[in-house]
Amino acid sequence: MTNDIRSRIANLSDQLHFHIYRYHVLNDPVIGDSEYDRMFRDLQDLEAEHPQYARADSPTQRVGSDLSGDFAKVAHPAPILSLANAFDEADLRHWEERNLRLLPSGSRLRYVLQPKLDGLAIVISYENGELIRAATRGNGVTGDDVTANVKTIRSAPLRIPLDPAAGPAPARLVVRGEILFHKDSFLELNREQAAQGLPAYVNARNTASGSLKQKDSRETAKRKLTAYIYDIVDSQGIELESEWQILRYLKSMGFKVLADASRCSSLDEAIEQAAAWEARRDDLPFEIDGLVLKVDELSAARELGVAGKDPRGAIAFKFPAEEAATTLLGITIGVGRTGKLTPTAQLEPVFIGGVTVSSASLHNYDQVAALDIRQGDRVVIKRSGDVIPYVIGPVIGARKGDETPIQPPQLCPFCVAEVVQPDGAIDWYCPNQICPERIMRALEFFVSRGAMDIEGMGPQTIAALIEERLIQDEADIFALQAEPLLALEGFAEKKVENLLSSIEAAKARPFEQVLTSLGIDGVGSTVAGLLTDNFASMADLQATAELISKAEASFLRNTLPLLPAAAADDSDVEKLRQRLRHPTTELAPRYMQGAELGPRLERLLRPLQLPVESLTLVAAQLQQLIDACRPLHTIEGLGPILARNIVDWFTDAHNQTVLKKMQAAGVNMKAEEKKVSGTALTGQTFVLTGTMSAPRGEIKALVEANGGKVTGGVSKKTSFVVAGDSPGSKVEKAEKNGVPILSEDELRALLGE
Length: 753
Ligand code: IVH
Description:
Layout lengths: L1 H24 L7 H17 L23 E3 L8 E3 L2 H14 L8 E7 L2 E8 L2 E7 L5 E3 L2 H4 L21 E10 L1 H13 L8 H9 L4 H6 L2 E12 L6 H10 L9 E3 L2 H14 L7 E8 L2 H7 L1 E2 L2 E2 L2 E5 L4 E13 L5 E12 L2 E7 L3 H7 L2 E2 L2 E5 L7 E5 L9 E2 L30 H12 L11 H9 L14 H5 L6 H14 L4 H7 L7 H10 L3 H22 L11 H11 L1 H4 L1 H4 L5 H9 L6 H22 L6 H11 L2 H12 L20 E5 L6 H10 L3 E3 L8 E4 L5 H9 L3 E2 L1 H7 L3
Parallel strand pairs: 2-13, 21-22, 21-23, 23-24
Antiparallel strand pairs: 1-6, 3-9, 3-10, 4-5, 4-7, 7-8, 10-13, 11-12, 14-15, 14-18, 15-16, 17-20, 18-19
Helix pairs in contact: 1-2, 12-13, 16-17, 18-23, 18-24, 22-23
The structure holds 2-(butylsulfanyl)adenosine.
The site of 2-(butylsulfanyl)adenosine has 14 residues, from strand 3, strand 8 and strand 13.
C-alpha cells in the first residue's frame, strides 16, 4: 500500500514534468488544462497526506517556466504568483473558511470577481509614466524581456496616464496582466491565413504566445493582440486599499481593464454572480477559462499571505471542463472536393460541456504525427463554443503498449487511387479528379448557397444523378433534360420543372459567384471578389494562368540544366536549387517589385558560381515569368500559394473541359460592366474599413458608380481610406502611409449627396 502511494506520487510527478515541458517550453501541450489541474491536485493531495514521499523535484514545489533562449532575462520586482484552483462551490466555501480561520475572529470578507482570461501573463514596468520594460512571467522570478514586442500592442499604453486629469504619473508602477487575441481578431487572422493559402491556427492562446515571442517585433505588430491589466505588482508613490481601487486606478491611468469586474459583499453574492458569468461566456469578446475571485481588502490579503506559489487571498474558479479524456477507437477518412484527406477520430462517446461527443477533428496527418496520437490511445478532446470538437493530444501516461501508430492511407478509400502529398503541403490528397467522393463533394459545393445556389439539388438528388450517370461533373448539370429526370424515383413533374428552372436561373449568377463555385483550393467568395475585380472574364483569367504556366515551364527547361550538382553537404546550394525549382512561388514574388533584377539575382545566386552567360539567361527567363505573373501576383491580399492553386486549377485539362462545357451551356463568365453614372471619383482608389450605414458592397458600388476604384489593402497608391465604426488596422496603415482618412459622411459629401 505504502509502496503504491510512493509510486503514484513518483508517477504523477513525472507526468506533470512532461506536461509542464510541453506547455511552457514547447508551447505545444498534449493534454488540456483541466486534465493537468486534476493531476496537479491529485499530487498535491497525496503529498499533503504523505509528506514523507514528496519528492524534492516535485512540480508542486516550483513554478512552471516559459523561458526560452531567444530573449534577455528580466528579474521581476516581486514574485509573479500563480493561483490555486477551485472547481465547485464547495471548494470556494472551503477556501473562505480556511481564510477566516487565519484572520482575527469576526472578520468579514468582501470580494472582487472578474473573468479569468485565457491568455499569457505579462509584467509591464513604468517609470515616471514611461513604459520601460515588459517581460513574460517566465518562472515567476525571472521572465523573458519582450519589451519591443509589447510596445507594438496598442492597448498597452507607452505612457501613463493618458488623461492628465488623472493626476501625475507614479514614480514607479509595475503592472500585471494578460495578453490575448480577441475572438474576432483571431478569426480575422485565420481568414488572412486562408487567403494566403496557409493552414489555420487552432489554439488562440498558443498563437498569442507565439506572436509575443517573435524575435522580430514587426512580426508581433502584424498580429492584433490585446493587453488587459488587472493587478499591481510593485509601485512607488501610490497608496491603495482594495482590489476595487486597484482596478479603478489602473483604469484612470489608461490601461485596458476588465470592465465587467464586480464587487461582492459576500461569498454568496460572488457564487450567485459566477453562475451568470458562465452563461455569458460565449458572448464575451475573449476566451475565458473561469473566474478569479480576490479578497477585496488588501490588508486582509496581505495578512493571509502566500501558500507555495499561490496567494491565499485569491483563487481561480474554473468552469466545468470543456475538455475530457476518452479512447480513440479508430479513424475515418474524409475526402473533400479538392481531394484533401481529413482524418476524423472516432471516439468512445464522452460528455463534454453538456453534449455527447463521439467524433472529433484530427486536423491532418502531420498533426497526428507531431502529437504522436495512436489508435487505442486515451486522448483529450476539447470543445469550445461552436467549433467542431478536436483532439488535443494523447495521455501518454495512460499507454498500455498495444496502441498502434496512425499513418496516412496509401490509397484513397473511395477510389483506391494512390494518395499524394504535394511538395511543401501539409495535407495528403486523392489526385483522381473523377473520384466519386470528390465529385460528390464538389457538386454539393457547386450548388450551395453563395456558389451557384441551385435550389432543389440536395445531396440525395446529386447522389441519384451520379448513380444514374446523368451527371459526372459540374457542367453536366446544365445539360440535364426533363425526360431522364422524370424516370427517376420520386421525381414528379412539378419537381423536375422546379429543378430545371432553378438550374436555368443559376446560369446568370454573377461572375464572382461562378468563380467561387468552382471550388478552387483557397478561393472562397473574398478571393473570388479580388479576382473578378482584376479580371474581366474567365477567359482572361485562364489566359493569364496559361501564360504563367508556359513561362514557368520555359524557366525550368532552361535554367535547371545550368545548375551544378550539389555537394551532399552544401545546404546553401541545395536551398537555392529548391528555390529555382519553384520559381513562381519562391522567386517571382520576391523580384516583382523594386530595382533592377539582374544585380539582385546575381547576389542571390552567387553560391552557385554560375558563368555570366548563364546568369543572364536565368535573369531573362525570370523576367519573362515575372511579366506573366504580374496581373495575378500583384493583387493585394492574394499570396503566392493561392496564386499557385489558381494557376494549377486553370491549366488542368479536366477543369478546362468542364469550363468549356459550362461556357457552351451559357453560364455567365464575365464581370458585369460597371455602370458608371458619375465621374466625381475618377482615378481615385478607395479602401473601405469598419461598419458603415449600409453594407460594404453597397458603398463599394456607390464609389464605383462614380468612377472610383475599391481595393482591399492600403498602400501608397491608395487615395483615401473610408473609415466606419470600429475600423481595423487599415486606419493605422493609412496614417503610416500618409493616406487621408474620410468618414462615410465625408465620402458622401464628395459625391455631393
Ligand atoms: S490574478 C496573485 N486575475 O491565470 C494573483 N490572474 O491560473 C495574480 N489570469 O497566473 C493573478 N486572468 O496569469 C488574475 N483576472 C485575472 C486573471 C489572471 C487570467 C491568469 C494569471 C495567473 C493564472 C492562474
